[in-house]
Task: structure prediction
Amino acid sequence: MTRRKLIAGNWKMNGLKEDGLRLAREVAHRAVAASRAAGAGLHCDVLVCPPATLLFPLAEELTGSPVLLGAQDCHAKPKGAHTGDISALMLRDAGCRFVIVGHSERRADHGETDAMVRAKAEAARAAGLVPIICVGETEAERDAGKTLEVVGRQIAGSVPDGLAPESLVIAYEPVWAIGTGRTPTPDDVADVHAYIRKRLAERVAAAEGVRILYGGSMKPGNAKELLAVENVDGGLIGGASLVATDFWAIVEAAQ
Ligand code: PEP
Result:
């Protein structure tokens, strides 16, 4: 089965208005030009997930381009007394199509558990957003030979039941590879992605259709090799998504 690749930029807590708008504009210009040159639209889906403060201005900036907008987190409830939080419905209202949930930085910084991540993914779905559910082992877990056990537990606990394959994206992000310049070997990535798909089949009908992204120090120099691995259906890109030329080189590597 062919799954359309998704290249997603996670800007994390980076970007004031002027810089964020400039970066979005640079990505949008490339996307419009590439899609015109191809005649039949872009060869893959391209998504940017800026900080929440930039969602509304970016939605406007990206109008007319094929670049999609997403957020980095949402609350599990649609509204209410949750100071400082943002609901999935609000993200949808701001023009988002996707939301990252359960990123390892949120699991670590905010003590997010699998159950919390699952509730957020359910809220995203209810609001009409596609959750990008992040899973991945720490270095200690990898060294202890527990990668598949950890990832399997996260899939079992974080993925809601009954989602259609197009309503769900998984991102495998080894914690030790995020922002470090280190990556697993393509064989290791293939093993984990195959295992994720197998575990997904227990939770989701037509798991073959679910996109599984790789994330963790993906750069222009390694993107082609990583994106060619079986069951790798795109990338979740942190640092390299903050430089338009690097991000676009990764988009091009997804051809
Ligand atoms: C991320 O945090 O989602 C990520 C993949 O970061 P980086 O690309 O910088 O490793």
About this structure: Residues 10, 173, 178-179, 215-218, 236-240 surround phosphoenolpyruvate (CB under 6 Å). The CA atoms of residues 19 and 108 lie 28 Å apart. The chain has one domain: 6-253.
